[in-house]
From TrEMBL, chain A:
<feature type="transmembrane region" description="Helical">
    <location>
        <begin position="89"/>
        <end position="110"/>
    </location>
</feature>
<dbReference type="Pfam" id="PF03626">
    <property type="entry name" value="COX4_pro"/>
</dbReference>
<feature type="transmembrane region" description="Helical">
    <location>
        <begin position="55"/>
        <end position="77"/>
    </location>
</feature>
<protein>
    <submittedName>
        <fullName>Cytochrome B6</fullName>
    </submittedName>
</protein>
<keyword id="KW-0812">Transmembrane</keyword>
<keyword id="KW-1003">Cell membrane</keyword>
<dbReference type="InterPro" id="IPR005171">
    <property type="entry name" value="Cyt_c_oxidase_su4_prok"/>
</dbReference>
<feature type="transmembrane region" description="Helical">
    <location>
        <begin position="30"/>
        <end position="49"/>
    </location>
</feature>
<dbReference type="GO" id="GO:0005886">
    <property type="term" value="C:plasma membrane"/>
</dbReference>
Automatic annotation (TrEMBL), chain B:
<keyword id="KW-1133">Transmembrane helix</keyword>
<keyword id="KW-0349">Heme</keyword>
<dbReference type="InterPro" id="IPR023615">
    <property type="entry name" value="Cyt_c_Oxase_su1_BS"/>
</dbReference>
<feature type="transmembrane region" description="Helical">
    <location>
        <begin position="68"/>
        <end position="92"/>
    </location>
</feature>
<comment type="function">
    <text>Cytochrome c oxidase is the component of the respiratory chain that catalyzes the reduction of oxygen to water. Subunits 1-3 form the functional core of the enzyme complex. CO I is the catalytic subunit of the enzyme. Electrons originating in cytochrome c are transferred via the copper A center of subunit 2 and heme A of subunit 1 to the bimetallic center formed by heme A3 and copper B.</text>
</comment>
<keyword id="KW-0408">Iron</keyword>
<feature type="transmembrane region" description="Helical">
    <location>
        <begin position="580"/>
        <end position="598"/>
    </location>
</feature>
<feature type="transmembrane region" description="Helical">
    <location>
        <begin position="380"/>
        <end position="404"/>
    </location>
</feature>
<feature type="transmembrane region" description="Helical">
    <location>
        <begin position="153"/>
        <end position="179"/>
    </location>
</feature>
Length: 111, 624
């Protein structure tokens, strides 16, 4: 984990290193946060323009949504850190099962 | 906690079991109630076989027969096989990974009570206007038009017990991920723990589709929605998909724990480590994964088209590969081992050919064009009874015999056990082998009787005779259990003498905190490693210290009783003449949410067992 406790009783040990890590972390979060806002603005703007085909808008908005979910999971919920392998495994296997189900409904049930 | 100041008497014991959060006691509850439902389902099976023993029989009416087959299937799958397996998992898995309890003891108790009261709701239908009669699959076009409240009992009963199973699955997942003892890496976990892990993941992903399907069915039947009504724009096939997206993983939920139990038994009584352990793990995970890709093989004749049928046929046949890996690994485990034919080992050895026969007919059924011939005939009945009885039930009987000393501290009688085994095995093959041929000769499934002169009379009589053999086997098992409990001869840590995994390193039954000090697992079959180095017990991984334990609680049972009450209001809500239903729903939900509120606002930090109470003379000697 990122904030793993050090074994030493000395609180100043690795302080410099941890401070640098946290600064880096903060930078990532600010960048992703601003990108997420930017994506949201793009989504709203596309719909507001009314000139773009809906067959372009819908996939692009879905794509932006997926990217935002990834940002959320990896940067804000710390999935990019170590120790999240099991969580990732379960999220992705759940997604596989769910998406296959959706795919089947779209291909052989309703169409 | 009761173990501290033990009160005597029946009332105290009852209260203890109603409030317990100890995984070992919850396991016993699962085993007892699962066993009761197993007997109920078995009685239903006997009635079915009596009705079919001779042509043109009028032992029961067609309507009752439909209720019988529906309740037999539903009871055996949801209320007998799964709870008994969950009971064995509860009893054994925390001990195998060296944990003091499951991750969420309170939820463990809640999961049990939800299952139990769900089962009670379902079975009360017999006394309250007729049981469900649309088959255990409850296909929508049939079940929506079913008269009376039978199908409503099915929907609500399964919904409640489904919540319980889902809770149990999540609990086991968290336990295995977070609570393994030091040194117990994933690839050192015993095979039964691995199968529990994969099964819990399957429960996590498979039960939500059932919940969705049942909810849609509930809306269709009770509030006049049209999800499955083709005439009103719905689609009846959606139910079949949702049911089988759940239903196919469900059969792996049943069979994988049996695989785990047999892996333990075969290794123990061959006195060898499990052959190809890592390939066994791989095969288990792969079966779990492929289990989600094959559900439409139950629907080949629905008319999905040749491409969809081909994809699902190939995917289904692919499952034979990991299953074959397992079969060969079990055989190689015995190869060159010094095999001891105890009762569990007899079950394990007979399981391999019996289950393989079920697997072979599975491949036959997976061939989509051939399936058009087999579909809805007794061939299918023979197939799934070969995998469920020849796999799961043999696994359950083996597991109960094998783990009986660990759960109850006594050994079941070997001679009576062998009688049970032979009666059950012969009866099983006698009942179901001939049904393959009945199917090929054209006898359809789910018929309540048949006319003479079609060449089915003798075979059906043979089948019924086999069922009587199985019943005799189960009765001998019950006698065995009673005799063993009355004699009450206590046994030590490792009564089978060749125990390999951590559960055999602690007393039988284990103390309520399981491990005084968490053991250090130094490899696969951790206890065996220590024994081979001449040690009597595990090396501790921590110094002796206070142990934090959870308090018992009556709240799980209160939450469940609320849902139990509310479900009867919901059941009869659609009858115009019953005005009491809405208040009943409200009262029930108030009980449930009130209990949940109390649980949320009342702090319960559990208690500590102090180091001084844990120390015995040996520890003191070392300390002094």
């Amino acid at each position: 984990m990122a904030n793993q406790q050090s074994n030493s009783a000395n609180p100043n040990l690795n302080l410099e290193y941890r401070r640098k890590q946290n600064a880096e972390e903060m930078k990532h979060q600010v960048i992703t946060f601003s990108m997420m806002i930017f994506f949201t603005l793009i989504a709203f703007a596309m719909v507001a323009m009314e000139t773009i085909s809906r067959w372009f808008i819908i996939p692009v908005i879905l794509l932006l949504a997926v990217i935002q979910v990834i940002f959320q999971l990896y940067y804000f919920m710390h999935m990019k850190h170590k120790g999240h392998e099991t969580i990732a495994l379960f999220i992705y296997s759940g997604l596989t099962v769910g998406l296959i189900t959706v795919l089947v409904f779209l291909t052989i049930v309703w169409l | 906690m009761s173990t501290y100041a033990k009160k005597q008497g029946f009332g105290a014991t009852l209260w203890d079991f109603m409030t317990t959060v100890d995984h070992k006691k919850i396991a016993i509850l699962y085993l007892i109630s699962g066993g009761l439902f197993f007997i109920l389902g078995g009685l239903e099976a006997m009635f079915i076989r009596i009705q079919l023993a001779v042509p043109d029989n009028n032992f029961m009416s067609a309507g009752t027969f439909n209720e019988m087959i529906t309740m037999h299937g539903t009871t055996m799958i949801f209320l007998a096989a799964m709870p008994i397996l969950l009971g064995i998992m509860n009893a054994v898995m925390p001990l195998q990974i060296g944990a003091r309890d499951v991750a969420f003891p309170f939820l463990n108790s809640l999961g049990f009570w939800l299952f139990f009261f769900g089962g009670v709701v379902l079975n009360l239908s017999w006394f309250m206007g007729g049981a469900p009669d649309a088959g255990w699959t409850s296909y929508a076009s049939l079940s929506i038009h079913s008269q009376g409240h039978g199908v409503d009992f099915y929907v609500l009963g399964l919904q409640i017990s489904g919540f319980g199973t889902l809770i149990a699955g999540i609990n086991f997942l968290v336990t295995i991920i977070n609570m393994r003892t030091p040194g117990m890496t994933y690839m050192r976990m015993p095979m039964f723990t691995w199968t529990t892990f994969v099964v819990s993941a399957l429960i996590l992903f498979a039960f939500p589709p059932l919940t969705v399907g049942l909810t849609l069915m509930l809306f269709d039947r009770m509030f006049g929605a049209n999800f499955f009504d083709a005439a009103a724009g719905g689609n009846t096939i959606i139910w079949e998909h949702l049911f089988w997206i759940f239903g196919h993983p469900e059969v792996y939920i049943l069979i994988l724990p049996a695989f785990g139990i047999f892996s333990e038994i075969l290794a123990t009584f061959s006195r060898k480590r499990l052959f190809g352990y890592s390939s066994m793990v791989f095969a288990t995970v792969l079966i779990g994964f492929l289990g989600f890709m094959v559900w439409a093989h139950h629907m080949f004749t629905v008319g999905l088209g040749p491409i969809a049928n081909a994809i699902f046929a190939v995917a289904t046949m692919a499952i034979a590969v990991p299953t074959g890996i397992k079969i060969f690994n079990w055989i190689f485990t015995m190869w060159g081992g010094s095999v001891r034919f105890t009762v569990p080992m007899l079950y394990a050895v007979s399981f391999i050919p019996s289950f393989t026969m079920g697997g072979v007919t599975g491949i036959m059924l997976a061939a989509a064009p051939a399936d058009y011939q087999y579909h809805d005939s007794y061939f299918v009945v023979a197939h799934f009874h070969y995998v469920i009885v020849g796999g799961v039930v043999l696994g359950i009987l083996a597991g109960i015999t094998y783990y009986w000393p660990k759960i109850f501290g006594t050994m079941l009688n070997e001679t009576l056990g062998k009688f049970t085994f032979w009666f059950f095995l012969i009866g099983f093959h006698l009942t179901f082998f001939i049904q393959h041929f009945l199917g090929l000769w054209g006898m359809p499934r789910r018929v309540f009787t048949y006319l003479p002169g079609q060449g089915w009379e003798t075979s059906n009589l043979v089948s019924t005779a086999g069922a009587i053999f199985m019943a005799v086997g189960v009765i001998i098992l019950l006698i065995n259990i009673i005799i063993t409990s009355v004699k009450n001869v206590r046994v030590g840590n490792d009564p089978w003498e060749d125990g390999r995994t951590l559960e055999w390193s602690i007393p039988s039954p284990p103390p309520f905190y399981n491990f005084k000090q968490l053991p250090l697992a130094r490899g696969l079959d951790a206890y065996w490693i220590e024994k081979m180095e001449g040690k009597k017990e595990m090396t501790p991984a921590e110094p002796l210290g206070d142990i934090h334990m959870p308090n018992g609680s009556i709240i799980p049972i209160c939450i469940t009783i609320g849902l139990f009450v509310a479900s009867f209001g919901a059941l009869y809500n659609m009858d115009a003449d019953k005005t009491w239903t809405v208040p009943v729903i409200i009262i029930g939900l108030l009980i449930t949410f009130g209990s949940m509120l109390i649980r949320s606002i009342k702090d319960d930090h559990g208690f500590h067992i102090h180091k001084e109470d844990l120390m015995d003379d040996k520890d003191k000697e070392v300390k002094a």
